[in-house]
Amino acid sequence: MKNTPIQLHVITRIVAFIILAFSIFLFFAGHNNPGGGFIGGLMTASALVLLFLSFDIKTIKKVLPFNYAKIIASGLLLAVLTGMVGMFLGDPFLNQFFRYYQLPILGKTELTTALPFDLGIYLVVVGFTLLVILTIAEDDS
Amino acid sequence: MSTLHFVTLAPFIMAIFVPIIYKKFRHLHTGWFILPLPLILFIYLFQYLPLDGSPMETVSYSVAWVPSLGINFTVYLDGLSLLFALLITGIGTLVVLYSIYYIANKKEEPLNNFYVYLMMFMGAMLGVVLSDNLIVLYVFWEITSLASSLLIAYWFHKEKSRYGAQKSMLITVTGGFSMLAGFTLMYLMTDTFSIRGIIAMADVIVTSPLFIPAMLLILLGAFTKSAQFPFHIWLPDAMEAPTPVSAYLHSATMVKAGIYLVARMTPVFGGQAEWFWIISTFGLFTLLWGSVSAVRQKDLKGILAFSTISQLGLIMSLLGLGSAGYHYEIIDGTSLPIVAVLAAVFHLINHATFKGSLFMVVGIIDHETGTRDIRKLGGLMTIMPITFTVSLIGIASMAGLPPFNGFLSKEMFFTGTLNSATLDVFNVGNFGVIFPVVAWIASVFTFIYCMIMLFKTFTGKHQPEKLDKAAHEAPIGLLISPIILASLVIVFGLFPNLLSYTIIEPVMQSIMPGLTAPGEQFYVNIYHWHGFNTELFMTMGVVFFGAFIFLNQKKWQDTTFYLRERDPLNWFYDNGLTGLINGSTVVNNVQMTGRLRDYFSYMFIFLIAIVSFMLWQSNALAVDFTNTTEIPSYMYFVSLSLILSTIVIPFVSKRISAIVLMGVVGFLVALLFVVFRAPDLALTQLLVETVMVVLFLLVFYHLPELRKETFKPVFRLSNLIISIGVGLVVTLTALSVHAYSYENPISPISDFFVENSYALAGGNNIVNVILVDFRGLDTLLEVLVLGIVALGVVVLIKFKARKGEDV
């Protein structure tokens, strides 16, 4: 994409970060408001896809040198390990826990094992979307 | 977790460490590290033997596995399981020792694979005999099939090894599967998976209509595993495995799993005419078929394979004949069929000792001369004197000659068949004469193949030019294990009552629990000299006729009977397998056209069929427009645009317009979600649509030039009918659900989530709470699918098959 207009670059730079920030908000809001790992992951992925569309793949790969297959694997691992926490405490697999803590700055906050589980899903969704799109995009034949 | 649980799991744990040991200590044979494990297990289990003459105490421990389904990992040790566990660990020890010398520590030998499979097998076999739960037993049972076929294919570069492995796997796993079905039927009848629980409810099972199917299905599993006719054909091909494996799996342990199962189930099914007839006739026929087929084998291991088949048939038939004892109201030690069960148990032990040693001896001959073909061997008596002595003992015991243990069990076998001939139950009547006659004929053939084995190998002219290696006596390490087994043959032969008080009695107690009153003991005495009776004359006849036929072998060695070595039943297996492959290719070619639209029509036709059938079947078809919500005016607009954009898609000829229209449909659906206040779904739908458009654009770039496809009107018409049908069925379902819920107010499942999501999971967003808390496993597996799909896409694109390359 050599003839990409400069406006697209500029707008993308700004918008991508807004989307990214919003996706992180969505991810954390998930438990009580619309959002969660799946949607957050999709939104992050679409922000990154926007970057890929605007700039060429090589540039972005230099900036974001991630191996998406590994992101998928680590997401799955995180979800499974979170599920196993319950097993060590004598509960069934994937039993989630939550409790309220008084944290500095944030105040009364709920900490739950659902969050790392959701993070696992988030990672898988991001990894999946980008891996599929990039593999198809890079296919030259 | 008790120590007994650990006994079952120890080999599996060992298997995990085998590759590490193999990598770290390359200079030392991996087998040396394995050897202590079966030995320790054997010594541990040995302590359970009632050595002081008191009755054996059974032990049982349980660990919950899936308690809600009644599946618990319960280990149960009684006489029967102790006997098998001792065989598995005892012979396992000797086999590991033997394998250390048999499979040399060369670089190219994948020793780690061998010992991993062997440990897997040992643990699975212990699990089969120790578990009290049918499902757990089934799981271990299938692991033995798996491990055994892996061991058969150990030298997988040989085509025959792979063939043998596939055959044993297909046959035994098929049997195991039907056994699982039988176990399920047992559960339906008794509501328990526990074997002891089922035995306690035997009277319920006998009267159930499911009795016969359950029995047949379970017997199919036992027969395939124990190589009973006509499923025996896998055993000769399994001889492609390394000899230690043959000695262990195919003579001493795995093939006896079927016998174990039959013995275990005797208290449940025994005493029924069907059980008696099926097991005794199949057993006797296998005995005869195996011994006749063994005579014409030219490969020493082939002879032993068919010999094993025939001896397994013998034990099986004895268990069948003995089950008649259950028919008598009062089971006591004097009733005749008891002798048959006694003979079965005794022969089981004897067979493990002599056949194990014989397999090892054949392995030695193969190892030191380079061949197992009896046409090339000969004159080894003076060259390999120790091997000869061990073989002589094993073969004499197999042939049933005194003073070895085989003689004793064969005499008891004759007694058992003679007793059954006089039975007056199960319409035996005149048929009973067949039992001793078949037994006698089979014994003659047994005697003949024993003589062939002994004389063709060790006497006659030595032909060094036909051998690959210069024959010499084996190293001491190879000889230890067969010598130990051969000395057991002699010890059990001379002092049979060593076994009768310690192990045979407890085994009898577990096969026939009603044998004695509580606290009372059942006394077994086995004598060498039992007078000039029919059995002794039968043995004399066997020796006389066997020797006569063997000495006249020149006359029958040129007949087609002798030259056709391969079992004729293999024809059915081979043709069945190719037929299966060809048949499925035909079905595949019809069904898997490679065109997405065909797949979709199949799926949708199926959907229409099953949903409309269910609606009609359950009489749920009802349309009721009362009590509908008022539709706001803008909904007409949204629905109309949705319907219009969907209808337009098939008529658009340009691809890009079709994609855009698809996007419009997607966004309109998202709009519907917004209208119905489902922000999570709307958000997801919007994002998915966005990503999909990007994906579509990328794929679009790669798509081949669109050529104008013309479809026949029939094709278009059928597609139209299918799509209208789907729409109709879905709409009708929705309307019926509405009508139904109006008539029968039911509280939807979402009420539960609304009430409990904050209390139980601490979240207000019930969609998210369902995803991560209530149905977390679903989500986990869904993202697992995503991961697999991603890998699939990568593999498909990065490693594309070249043109014309077959997948």
From TrEMBL, chain B:
<dbReference type="GO" id="GO:1902600">
    <property type="term" value="P:proton transmembrane transport"/>
</dbReference>
<feature type="transmembrane region" description="Helical">
    <location>
        <begin position="599"/>
        <end position="622"/>
    </location>
</feature>
<feature type="transmembrane region" description="Helical">
    <location>
        <begin position="532"/>
        <end position="551"/>
    </location>
</feature>
<dbReference type="GO" id="GO:0006814">
    <property type="term" value="P:sodium ion transport"/>
</dbReference>
<keyword id="KW-1003">Cell membrane</keyword>
<feature type="transmembrane region" description="Helical">
    <location>
        <begin position="433"/>
        <end position="455"/>
    </location>
</feature>
<keyword id="KW-1133">Transmembrane helix</keyword>
<feature type="transmembrane region" description="Helical">
    <location>
        <begin position="29"/>
        <end position="49"/>
    </location>
</feature>
<feature type="transmembrane region" description="Helical">
    <location>
        <begin position="111"/>
        <end position="129"/>
    </location>
</feature>
<feature type="transmembrane region" description="Helical">
    <location>
        <begin position="302"/>
        <end position="326"/>
    </location>
</feature>
<feature type="transmembrane region" description="Helical">
    <location>
        <begin position="338"/>
        <end position="365"/>
    </location>
</feature>
<feature type="transmembrane region" description="Helical">
    <location>
        <begin position="715"/>
        <end position="740"/>
    </location>
</feature>
<feature type="domain" description="MrpA C-terminal/MbhE">
    <location>
        <begin position="716"/>
        <end position="798"/>
    </location>
</feature>
<dbReference type="InterPro" id="IPR001750">
    <property type="entry name" value="ND/Mrp_TM"/>
</dbReference>
<feature type="transmembrane region" description="Helical">
    <location>
        <begin position="659"/>
        <end position="676"/>
    </location>
</feature>
<feature type="transmembrane region" description="Helical">
    <location>
        <begin position="82"/>
        <end position="104"/>
    </location>
</feature>
<feature type="transmembrane region" description="Helical">
    <location>
        <begin position="634"/>
        <end position="652"/>
    </location>
</feature>
<protein>
    <submittedName>
        <fullName>Na+/H+ antiporter subunit A</fullName>
    </submittedName>
</protein>
<feature type="transmembrane region" description="Helical">
    <location>
        <begin position="476"/>
        <end position="495"/>
    </location>
</feature>
<feature type="domain" description="NADH-Ubiquinone oxidoreductase (complex I) chain 5 N-terminal">
    <location>
        <begin position="68"/>
        <end position="114"/>
    </location>
</feature>
<feature type="domain" description="MrpA C-terminal/MbhD">
    <location>
        <begin position="642"/>
        <end position="705"/>
    </location>
</feature>
<feature type="transmembrane region" description="Helical">
    <location>
        <begin position="6"/>
        <end position="22"/>
    </location>
</feature>
<keyword id="KW-0915">Sodium</keyword>
<dbReference type="Pfam" id="PF00361">
    <property type="entry name" value="Proton_antipo_M"/>
</dbReference>
<feature type="transmembrane region" description="Helical">
    <location>
        <begin position="245"/>
        <end position="263"/>
    </location>
</feature>
<keyword id="KW-0739">Sodium transport</keyword>
<feature type="transmembrane region" description="Helical">
    <location>
        <begin position="275"/>
        <end position="295"/>
    </location>
</feature>
<dbReference type="InterPro" id="IPR050616">
    <property type="entry name" value="CPA3_Na-H_Antiporter_A"/>
</dbReference>
<keyword id="KW-0050">Antiport</keyword>
<feature type="transmembrane region" description="Helical">
    <location>
        <begin position="195"/>
        <end position="224"/>
    </location>
</feature>
<dbReference type="Pfam" id="PF20501">
    <property type="entry name" value="MbhE"/>
</dbReference>
<dbReference type="Pfam" id="PF13244">
    <property type="entry name" value="MbhD"/>
</dbReference>
<feature type="transmembrane region" description="Helical">
    <location>
        <begin position="135"/>
        <end position="156"/>
    </location>
</feature>
<keyword id="KW-0812">Transmembrane</keyword>
<dbReference type="GO" id="GO:0015297">
    <property type="term" value="F:antiporter activity"/>
</dbReference>
<dbReference type="InterPro" id="IPR001516">
    <property type="entry name" value="Proton_antipo_N"/>
</dbReference>
<feature type="domain" description="NADH:quinone oxidoreductase/Mrp antiporter transmembrane">
    <location>
        <begin position="131"/>
        <end position="423"/>
    </location>
</feature>
<comment type="similarity">
    <text>Belongs to the CPA3 antiporters (TC 2.A.63) subunit A family.</text>
</comment>
<keyword id="KW-0472">Membrane</keyword>
<feature type="transmembrane region" description="Helical">
    <location>
        <begin position="780"/>
        <end position="799"/>
    </location>
</feature>
<dbReference type="InterPro" id="IPR046806">
    <property type="entry name" value="MrpA_C/MbhE"/>
</dbReference>
<feature type="transmembrane region" description="Helical">
    <location>
        <begin position="682"/>
        <end position="703"/>
    </location>
</feature>
